[in-house]
Design brief:
The protein is α/β, with parallel strands linked by helices. It is built from 12 helices and 13 strands. The strands form 4 sheets. Strands 3-2-1-4-5-7-11 form a 7-stranded parallel beta sheet, with helices on both faces. The protein has a two-stranded parallel sheet with strand order 6-13. A two-stranded parallel sheet has the order 8-10. Helix 1 crosses helix 6 and helix 3 runs parallel beside helix 4. The protein starts with 9 loop residues before the first strand and ends in a 5-residue tail after the last helix. The chain binds nicotinamide-adenine-dinucleotide and ligand L6FXTLRJ. Belongs to the 3-beta-HSD family. It is a multi-pass membrane protein. InterPro entries: 3Beta_OHSteriod_DH/Estase, Lipid_A_modif_metabolic_enz, NAD(P)-bd_dom_sf.
Length: 369
């Protein structure tokens, strides 16, 4: 497509644009949205990599800001055509207080919605999560489910509760009149566990394996399957939704879409080994599964230690009763809703996604944990 000033007229805002997913969304927009005139990247912590993007044809505006501050959000949103709201506090490890998680995930999302209404921005894409659905506190499996599969979505943990509340707010806002009299069009994307370049938890597992002499110990039975999705495909879905919302407002407005691709269904650990294996780690003899009661004991002990040590230091290991429950419950998605509604096809094959992630883990090798 011609790269003329006439074709470039849209202003996009990406909140959380310097996070794991946000950075991929930002880069994907620059590659795949030829109508882009200005790209605003809003984050609490701006990445130095943004500088290198400022030399291209699109005006990249870095905005250091906090979604919990309504005036900062309103200033960033004013004049934007589309907002992609990925900013969030992703914490299932007890690093932040429940109040802070709600403040960022729920109040932050309210602020984004109100800013759209006040300033006349019509298109809002929200990054929700599979956790809005499950796994639930009863540990019910969600097997090859889609957006319409009945499931008891009951949660206690602040992260899924906050994402569920925020998603509801976004969907309820669909159709609200914005400044200027037109209607707001919103929708929510629900990624399953995202992986790929920049995935902090993968990095943590890798360093843990190195510390254990190149070994990881299987904790979860291989039969417990999870859906995972490559970050590049999640970013691509966000860009496609943003591009299609105007033309297909009646169909897509107020809808939710799981994020999916061709990544295989596997247990969380077996899936991670697809990348960590080629980087020299091995999962110790599959017959020597750590017994579940022992894991539960360790997880509970970790939670207790976290509570006891809180006045002195932050102790937030990967294993706690909540992460154990999530890891130990099947949650797999099988749907084609995104394809039917806006023509989504994964941009990256499983082989591409795997190769890119392995290359990234190999580059992480030697870097500080
Ligand atoms: N990582 C996953 O597996 C996964 C899966 C499903 C959904 N999600 C959702 O995707 C989104 C992005 O997650 P991620 O994995 O990239 O996390 P991340 O922590 O890497 O990115 C979140 C970004 O939001 C920013 N942020 C946090 N608080 C902010 C605030 N108050 N104001 C402005 N910016 C703030 C952070 O600085 C960070 O750059 C989140 O909304 C998360 O709930 C993530
Ligand atoms: C029992 C441990 C022994 O190896 C393994 C613990 C693994 C857990 C740390 C992760 C298992 C499942 C992950 C979650 C899932 O992939 C989906 C998510 C949704 C998203 O919105 C945020 C991240 C996460 C909650 C993700 C977090 C890490 C796990 C609990």
């Amino acid at each position: 497509m011609a790269d003329s000033a006439e074709t470039r007229k849209l202003v996009y805002l990406v909140t959380g644009g310097c996070g794991f997913l946000g950075e991929h969304v930002v880069r994907m927009l620059l590659q795949r949205e030829p109508r882009l005139y200005e790209l605003r990247v809003f984050d609490l912590h701006l990445g130095p990599w943004l500088e290198e993007l400022k030399t291209g044809p699109v005006q990249v505006t870095a905005i250091q800001g906090d979604v919990t501050q309504a005036h900062e959000v309103a200033a960033a949103v004013a004049g934007a055509h589309v907002v992609i709201h990925t900013a969030g506090l992703v914490d299932v490890f007890g690093r932040a207080s429940p109040e802070t998680i709600y403040e960022v995930n729920v109040q932050g999302t309210k602020n984004v919605i109100e800013a759209c209404v006040q300033t006349g921005t019509r298109f809002l894409v929200y990054t929700s999560s599979m956790e809005v659905v499950g796994p639930n506190i009863k540990g019910h499996p969600f097997y090859r489910g889609n957006e319409d599969t009945p499931y008891e979505a009951i949660h206690r943990h602040p992260y899924p509760c906050s994402k569920a509340q925020a998603e509801r707010l976004v969907l309820e806002a669909n159709g609200r009149k914005v400044h200027g009299g037109l209607s707001l069009v919103t929708c929510a994307l629900r990624p399953t566990g995202i992986y790929g370049e920049g995935h902090q938890i993968m990095r943590d597992f890798y360093h843990q394996g190195l510390r254990l002499g190149g070994r990881l110990f299987r904790a979860i039975p291989a039969s417990v399957e999870h859906s995972r999705v490559y970050v590049g495909n999640v970013a691509w879905m966000h860009v496609l939704v943003a591009q299609e919302l105007e033309q297909r407002a009646a169909l897509m407005g107020g809808q939710v879409y799981f994020c999916y691709d061709e990544s295989p269904y596997k247990s969380y650990e077996d899936f991670n080994m697809e990348f960590l294996g080629p980087c020299g780690l091995r999962l110790v003899d599959t017959r020597l599964l750590v017994p579940y009661w022992l894991l539960m004991l360790l997880a509970t002990l970790n939670a207790l230690l976290q509570w006891l040590l809180r006045p002195l230091l932050l102790y937030a290991p990967l294993l706690n009763p909540y992460t154990l429950a999530v890891a130990n419950t099947t949650f797999t998605v099988s749907t084609d809703k995104a394809q039917r509604h806006f023509g989504y096809k994964p941009l990256f094959s499983w082989e591409d996604s795997r190769t890119r992630t392995i290359r990234w883990v190999q580059a992480v090798e030697g870097s500080a944990p």
